[in-house]
Request: fold
Amino acid sequence: MTPREPEPHEKVLREHEDLRRVLAELRGLADRIVREPGGRDAPRALLDGVEALRSRLAAHFVHEEESGLPNGLADRLPHVADRADMLRGEHFFILEDLQSLVNEAHRSLLVGEELGVRARQVLLRIARHEERETSLIQQAFTSDIGGVD
Ligand SMILES: [Fe+2]
Reply:
């Protein structure tokens, strides 16, 4: 028997799991920079990781927006449609935040502890965004009584 093709919401949930791991790794680097602001390896690794994360998130957001998932959520849980719209609206700003972080670091406007602290804030914001999406998707698709909040 061939395994069935995962549903759009299942694919997105898997991506969220991967993203959680990547975000945790990058937060670990940001913490290290805050603890040892003089090091050179951690900032380089962090910025490479942030650039890779930005590309990955850009693709992830397009996937979420084109997967039919937002409509699926609104169909199953009409009262969360506004929350889903708000989360979708955050996508642009998340990519902007990551780009500014990289640009400012490359221009040496953001170094040492300040880089670590700012990266931590940006990464935390993304993690919270993805958690809120995960929770909406789980409410809509994986609850036994789907359709009830
Ligand atoms: Fe997401």
Observations:
- The pocket of fe (ii) ion is lined by residues 16, 60, 64, 130, 133 (CB under 6 Å).
- The chain has one domain: 8-141.
- The first helix runs from residue 8 to 35.
- The CA atoms of residues 9 and 39 lie 41 Å apart.
